[in-house]
Amino acid sequence: MRKIILSGLGILFIVVSFFIAKKLIDEKNKPKPVKEKVVKTVLIDTVANGTVQIIIPANGSLVAKRRLEIYAEVQGLFKSSKTLFKPGQIYSKGQTLVRIDASEHYASVQSEKSNLYNDIAAIMPDLRLDFPEVFQKWQNYLTGFDLNKTTPQLPEITSDKENYFITGRGIISRYYNVKNLEQRLSKYNIYAPFSGILTEALITEGTLVRSGQKLGEFIDTSVYEMEVALNENYANLVKVGEEVALTNLDKTQTYTGKVSRVNGSVDATTQTITAYIDVTDSNLKEGIYLEANLNAKQEQDAIEIDRNLLSESNEIFIVRDSLLDLIKAKPVYFSDTKVVLKNVPNGTIILKKPVPGAYAGMLVKPFKGTDKTGNK
Prior knowledge:
It is built from five helices and 22 strands. It has 376 residues and is α+β, with helices and mostly antiparallel strands. It starts with a helix and ends in a 10-residue tail after the last strand. 16% of the residues are buried.
């Protein structure tokens, strides 16, 4: 029985081996399938050279063009006023920003003015006798002298004798001493040189202000300025007075600025040149970050394409007889996403979008229809 089972298994193995061998022989003789040539569909464009406006992108934050750092030149207590000295407070031109108690200094000014008046009055009898021709003008000066007003200028001295007499009595030195005290008295009140807003306040009512102490900052909100750094290669392209398109970071607001100044020197560290753009808008605030597009130059007989269509060897793909080919081009300006090219003949068919794995000699066919951007 055992021999019969072993014999049957052997016969079964031989039969299975025969069929497997036959199948392998049939598959070996079967012809291999011919691979079909893959023809990629590409977006194309036809070259039409023209004038390309080169736009230089830049960015920066706004600062007030007119800024006043308020410092004290005298000492005294800071006095309160109807308008609180607080950040965000609006002041008109000529309005008092800071009032420092000047009562002690005011008394000194009045005392010195009184001494000047007395000195002039003391020489009047001598003027009547010795210089009758100038007596009247000095008399008129005394008549118009008001202790509560600014000291008027002394009468014009017309002769050497008069000059020696007046100077010898100490009138000239007394007069300039009074004017010096009056000038210092004016420093106890600080007025707004322009309409604007207080952005920083370092003192409060009752603070003892010391000479040289910073009191705050005041800015003009009518005009802001943006400082941008440009590559020194573009220094000769940016002109004062050119309009500039500005946008916020979200691209939701647009503004129009104007180049007001261009620095005459190049930063030795960064090799950049600084340009300043003025912008006026009631919605702007100091510190807002904006992006600028400066119209730098118009390039003639040029085209603008996506930057990734230009190879590192300054070549671009063209379509010739349904095959890709490479030609040389001359780049004249690079932006983040675009490149401006010259020396590309009119009528040349170029790729509009890059093709993965593209090579010279690749078989392609133009796409017929409309792409996602709406271009045919």
